[in-house]
Amino acid sequence: MKNLHKNFGFVPALLLISSSMIFARDVRHKEYDFTADKRMPLKIRLAVDAGEVKIKPGNDDRDIHLSFRFDDRRYEVSVQFDEDENVLEAYFDIKKWFKDEDHDEKSSARLLVELPYGVPIILNCKTKAGETDIELGDLRIREFSLRVLAGETFLAFSKPNRERMKELTIETKIGELVSEKLGNANFEFAQIDGNIGELSIDLTGDVEQKRDREIDMSLNIGQTRVYLSKDDAVRFKVSKFLFLSNVDMPFEYKREGKYYYSENYDDAKYKTLISVSPGLGTLDIRLR
Question: Where are the domains of the chain?
Answer without folding.
Answer: 1-37+60-86+94-113, 120-287
